[in-house]
């Protein structure tokens, strides 16, 4: 090697060693070093980064060590993986999981313990952002919002129900945002003025309430022995969508049946809040082939890029009632207070009977396994054909102990992986794709400068191992690092 080349290399080496550091001025923050960042956008790993958090925002990301001015602490993430905090876009937080209003009144101490733990339970499994899909009144969220440690919470204008339709249990101001349908067969009480219950009026109220989405329903009902609930027309749904978008709201519609998905796919709504696991007169045979009638409906949703929430755990949560051994799962100790777990164990048979009557558990288990398989095969069809799949759990979906907060999201991910969904897709669905669907991607869904400092520090790479989501070192919420074990309902384990 000649002297001139050696001199050049020496100069370059000295320059790189003495290159000025990036100056970052912060008020109060966190510096993460040796960070391997897993991106849901590029779906790869960027190694050995520095991440500087200033308050609740990401101020700097880079492999060049910054010179940080201000007050900060340091977290060494060597050997760990950084991902954006997870987003569950379908939860319900205003009640106590699986307890009726009467049971809540009878057990105030259990309710208090549950509400105190609830925000921590979502964080324990990495859900730093959740979207409540059923609350008409923001004041019902107050207990959750007043918690010292909690995920970022958004909500939709629940109660935008078709007059006399599913989801409207009584005529009172408790559910003010019902939508009048002119061809409604049932009479609407005279005290309600039609002009206050048009899609335009309802969407305006929902938008002004601070909601990020408007939710309505296409649900004819579940009991064939009683008349069907009213459902919207195509014209009305088109009007609802127009007014939702006028108010910068995502239109989310409840629906899980073949009839509902057929209608909603053609109506080109933004998001369907459930998977198509109710196939009506069709069923999954031994060949595991989707009937052409089901495929046709899914194809329409794929073509229109309608957001599709598989909500696989809705079915599994009900099936779990056939086997109370689920209540011995050690993971429940982290997300539920012990007195609530004890209550479930003491009332497990009653909870089963309240939903399934005296139906044999073996038959219920078999039928719900088939329905679950239908949901999973639909999920894979949507994935393989370019469907717009979003992550939401519907926690809790019904009066069952099978959908515990936080843990239910992990179980949903496990089911998706079991169905064959690639791990990179699961990551993107639960982060950036959810953020885009609900117009939150300016601040959420990826690890980028300027975005919200909601991050997870994992002990495993989630692109290689689904159990990484149950192997969390730290949860960083709004820039503040929290050791995962301190979030457990069982307390710190030394």
UniProtKB/TrEMBL annotation:
Give the domain of life: Bacteria
Q: Which residues form the Amidohydrolase-related domain?
A: 81-260, 372-481
Indicate whether Signal appears among the record's keywords.
Answer: yes
Q: Respond yes or no to whether keyword Transferase is given for this record.
A: no
Matching entries from InterPro entries are given as: Amidohydro-rel (IPR006680), Metal-dep_hydrolase_composite (IPR011059), Metal_Hydrolase (IPR032466), Metallo-dep_Hydrolase (IPR051781)
- Which keywords does this Swiss-Prot/TrEMBL entry list? Signal
Which residues constitute the signal peptide according to the record? 1-21
Which PANTHER family does the UniProt record give?
Answer: ALPHA-D-RIBOSE 1-METHYLPHOSPHONATE 5-TRIPHOSPHATE DIPHOSPHATASE
In its UniProt entry, what is this protein called?
A: Amidohydrolase family protein
